[in-house]
Amino acid sequence: MPRFTFFLILLFGCASCGLFADSFREVSFETADVGTVYANLYGEGDHAVVLAHGAIFDKESWHPLATAIVKKGLQVLAIDFRGYGKSQSGSRASAKYLDLLAGMDFLSTQGAKRVSMLGASMGGGAAAQAAVEAKTEQLVKLILLAPARVSSPNKLQGNKLFIVSKGDGLYSSVVSAHKKASGPKRLEILEGDAHAQHIFKTRHGVALTEMIVDFLAE
Asked: For residues 55-73, b (16+ Cβ closer than 10 Å) or e, as one string?
């Protein structure tokens, strides 16, 4: 085999080997209320994960976690909520959950047959609402990382993982939401008081990443 041909195969033909798991492309799609969402799309695969950021974060904040998830053979879509980056609101300015539902629909056009979702803080509240409104059996797994608000925990779809720090101001509400949610479900309580995505910057960051990746890949 010519050396140049071998190099091309190595460069473009080994997506599954994880060498280029940190690469992504920016995509955009329309929401039900005619808004526009921009997102970073990583990898490929029939199981995809939508990542929903907190209020002071954006789609780029998920890059380290997204690359870890992709190495397990999953596809990842990290969105910018309406009003963040280039994403624009539709007719329902505060309906962030519509951005996530649109993301789930977009992933179905990218070969995803199963979709999971991870939301942190503000994004956790939006993810919880999306998990109530999603089409039946559209959502297989839901991770709520110190979600800001879970209005209907008993209606959440999917296999659920709640994560919160013991000293987080939202600790009680997260524990309560977990208690009211139907199974399958799981609650993980971490030491410290770091909130949502801030946990990744603490000594628990590696363990949190592994917990999330393992839950999604199992």
From this structure: eebbbebbbebbbbbbbbb
| Residue that the structure tokens 């208690």 belong to | 179
Query: C-alpha 102: how far from its chain's center?
Result: 13
Model confidence at 145: pLDDT above 50:
yes
Residue 80 vs residues 52, 53, 63, 136, 203: alpha-carbon distances, Å = 8, 7, 13, 25, 27
Query: Which residue is listed with tokens 């990290």?
Result: 78
Confidence at residue 12, expressed as pLDDT on a 0 to 100 scale: 35
- DSSP string covering 117-168: EEEETHHHHHHHHHHHHSPTTTEEEEEEES-S--S-GGG--SEEEEEEETT-
Closest by Cα among 103, 108, 112, 106 to 46: 112
Q: What tens digit of pLDDT does each residue of 62-76 get?
A: 999 999 999 999 999
Angle at 200 between CA 195 and CA 201, to 5 degrees: 90
CATH class for the domain made up of 19-217: alpha beta
* Contacts of 15-24 spanning 24+ positions with Cβ under 8 A: 15/43, 15/44, 16/73, 18/70, 18/71, 21/67, 21/70, 21/71, 22/63, 22/67, 24/66, 24/76, 24/78
User: With 80 as the cut, is the pLDDT of residue 2 above it?
Assistant: no
Q: What are phi and psi of 92, to 5 degrees?
A: -115, 85
- Count CB neighbours of 12 within 10 A: 9
Q: What is the model's pLDDT at position 138? A: 87
Beta bridge partners of 162: 144, 187
